[in-house]
Amino acid sequence: MLNLGIYEERTVCKMLGELAYKEGVTNMTEIKLNGRPVEKLTQDFVRKMPEVGMVELTYYCELEKENRE
User: Fold this and answer.
1) pTM value?
2) Of the four, 10, 36, 57, 69, which is 20 to 30 A from 1 by CA?
3) Does residue 3 sit in helix, strand or coil?
């Protein structure tokens, strides 16, 4: 759970979004924005991250699918 009103937590959310686009958007599941289910975080959302709200998600990448570059 990340509070977008806190700079550091907003930065973590942005980093997870960018990582998902490199490693695979299916790695990010159970996404909720302000308590409402969201299918996926779009690149536009990640680029223009809101400064308020709550994001809940699970991020998991299998070891053999990790992008180590």
Assistant:
1) 0.82
2) 69
3) strand
